[in-house]
């Protein structure tokens, strides 16, 4: 091996060591979505990251989305999608497709990817082991009915803890169930990731996105943000649109006991490792 390359590798490994020591035995919840979930190279690098984290004694828990995949299958079936406030109206037939895509196709693809790279993953939906109890989501001040779109009522983390302790990597699809009538509900994956992180007392919540993180008005990356700074950025319109629910989800998790939250660029190869195990990081850090 060339001497300079060997030195660079050694430098990277020694930089990672204190972070590995800090997070050993800790839980990291990662919401997986966006380009990182559709680009083959990024999918492979994500799976390798997750396997490496588990191998060095960190407990990753993956929560994934799948909106584009649901949309494509509905289109193939000739079923038109309707959205209210950015959320897909989900009738019974659409919910069948949601469960097939999230709990089947997407979930098992992630499990297979992790297994291919030497990890042991188990796919779950919120129905498994009573993991996610949900209730129907209603929109304030809006007459539209979203159907089987839900919000988290409660989370029982025992099955996730059991898998973690047994050396498995939990991979969770954001489908919950109603305790009252057994109905299934599709829930926003960011929300589920935040709630799971809170209940597990996770050290960190990481949300993968298709942007570098939270940007200022000049397009520069912002980091080290607390609730006060975030409120000011929302008030002046710097944070808006699709970033708002991610920010609120991250701050809610921190208020509920999660150590820190990160919104990172999932378009960067090995983004999870770069954020967790290097000095630089690749996104926006949110803190209490």
Q: Helix and strand layout, with pairings?
A:
Elements: H1 3-23, E1 27-32, H2 40-55, E2 59-64, H3 67-76, E3 83-84, E4 87-88, H4 92-116, E5 121-125, E6 132-136, E7 150-155, H5 158-165, E8 169-173, E9 175-177, E10 184-186, H6 189-200, E11 204-209, E12 214-215, E13 221-222, H7 227-235, H8 243-255, E14 260-265, H9 271-277, E15 283-286
Helix pairs in contact: 2-4, 3-4, 6-8
Overall description:
The protein has 288 residues and is an alpha/beta fold. 42% of the residues lie in helices and 22% in strands. It has nine helices and 15 strands. The strands form five sheets. The protein has a seven-stranded mixed beta sheet with strand order 5-8-2-1-11-14-15, with helices on both faces. A two-stranded antiparallel ribbon has the order 3-4. Strand 1, helix 2 and strand 2 form a beta-alpha-beta unit. Helix 3 crosses helix 4. The termini are far apart. 44% of the residues are buried. The model has no long low-confidence stretch (mean pLDDT 91).
């Amino acid at each position: 091996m060339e001497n300079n390359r060997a030195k660079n590798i050694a430098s990277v490994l020694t930089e990672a060591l204190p972070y590995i020591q800090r997070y050993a035995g800790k839980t990291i919840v990662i919401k997986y979505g966006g380009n990182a979930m559709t680009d083959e190279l990024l999918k492979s690098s994500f799976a390798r990251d997750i396997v490496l984290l588990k191998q060095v004694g960190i407990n990753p828990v993956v929560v994934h989305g799948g909106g584009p995949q649901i949309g494509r299958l509905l289109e193939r079936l000739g079923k038109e999608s309707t959205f209210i406030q950015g959320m897909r109206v989900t009738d019974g037939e659409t919910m069948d497709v949601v469960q097939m895509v999230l709990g089947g196709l997407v979930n098992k693809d992630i499990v297979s990817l992790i297994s291919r790279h030497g990890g042991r993953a188990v796919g779950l939906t919120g129905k498994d082991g009573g993991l996610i109890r949900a209730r129907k989501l209603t929109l304030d001040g809006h007459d539209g009915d979203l159907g089987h779109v839900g919000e988290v009522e409660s989370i029982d983390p025992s099955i996730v803890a059991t898998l973690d302790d047994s050396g498995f990597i939990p991979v969770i699809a954001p489908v919950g169930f109603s305790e009252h009538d057994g109905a299934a509900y599709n829930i926003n994956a960011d929300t589920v990731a935040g709630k799971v992180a809170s209940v597990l007392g996770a050290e960190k919540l990481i949300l993968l996105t298709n942007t570098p993180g939270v940007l200022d008005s000049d397009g520069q990356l912002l980091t080290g943000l607390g609730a006060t700074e975030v409120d000011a950025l929302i008030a002046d319109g710097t944070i808006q649109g699709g970033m708002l629910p991610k920010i609120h989800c991250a701050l809610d998790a921190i208020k509920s006991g999660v150590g820190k939250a990160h919104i990172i660029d999932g378009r960067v190869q090995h983004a999870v490792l770069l954020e967790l195990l290097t000095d630089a990081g690749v996104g926006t850090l949110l803190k209490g």
